[in-house]
Design goal:
Blueprint: H1 6-12, H2 17-24, H3 28-36, H4 44-54, H5 58-62
Length: 65
């Protein structure tokens, strides 16, 4: 089940959207839409890039246990 915890983890780690965008190569706008839920089902490639920056597995960032 898709459940995005990206914003929660990002804030806990003190990572800004700007920094995440720079490190992943994904636009701030796209990342913001993912966080607020207006964009769903990102590609695995994007999920993998985001999870690596957050230091977590894709399953922990994007899927419920």
């Amino acid at each position: 089940m898709y459940q995005n915890k990206m914003q929660q983890i990002r804030k806990e780690k003190g990572i800004t959207l700007t920094s995440m965008a720079e490190k992943t190569g994904i636009s701030i706008g796209y990342l913001s839409h993912l966080e607020n839920g207006s964009r769903k089902n990102p590609s695995f490639e994007k999920m993998d890039k985001i999870a690596k920056v957050l230091g977590k597995p894709v399953s922990e960032v994007f899927f419920a246990e």
